[in-house]
Specification:
- The chain has about 140 residues and is an alpha+beta fold.
- It folds into two domains: about 30 residues; about 90 residues, Sandwich (Immunoglobulin-like).
- It is about 20% helix and about 40% strand.
- The strands form two sheets. Strands 1, 2, 3, 5 and 8 form a five-stranded mixed beta sheet that branches. It has a five-stranded mixed beta sheet with strand order 4-10-9-6-7, with no helix packed on it.
- The chain is elongated and about 75 Å long.
């Protein structure tokens, strides 16, 4: 094998290792709501309405939320420089499908939910999702 061919082969192997490492690094991002993690503090009650805040950028955070059942709820979607598919939000149980602004707040009214209900939201590609458990 000539020196030029060997250098090309080594460059390809090095590029493959770097790309694999980058994919593993990005794919292993921490999630504040994995099993055993403390519950998210993204729910408040103001003037009799429950406000649930979800951040949309590179996915949804928190991914799992516990909320009160039986009270009017407003889902507040926060975006800051969001240009990925998480801006294309779908909440099937509400019949909601809309593009979120790249930066700003979007308020979505959620009717009172029965105890034990789980409302799910997901991006247009189905890559990112969140769940709100009403208890």
């Amino acid at each position: 094998m000539s020196t030029d061919n060997r250098n090309i082969a080594l460059s390809i192997v090095a590029a493959a290792v770097l790309i694999s490492g980058a994919i593993m690094f990005v794919g292993s991002g921490s999630d504040v709501n994995t099993a055993g993690a403390p519950p998210a503090n993204n729910v408040s009650v103001v003037d009799g309405k429950q406000i649930i805040v979800i951040n949309a950028k590179g996915g949804y955070a928190p991914r799992v939320t516990s909320a009160k059942a039986g009270i009017p709820t407003v889902l507040k979607m926060d975006t800051t420089g969001t240009f990925d598919c998480s801006a294309a939000l779908s909440i099937p149980s509400l019949g909601y499908r809309n593009m979120l602004p790249s930066s700003g707040e979007t308020f979505i009214d959620v009717p009172p939910q029965k105890p034990g209900t789980t409302m799910r939201g997901l991006c247009a590609m189905g890559m990112y999702s969140f769940a709100i458990n009403f208890n």
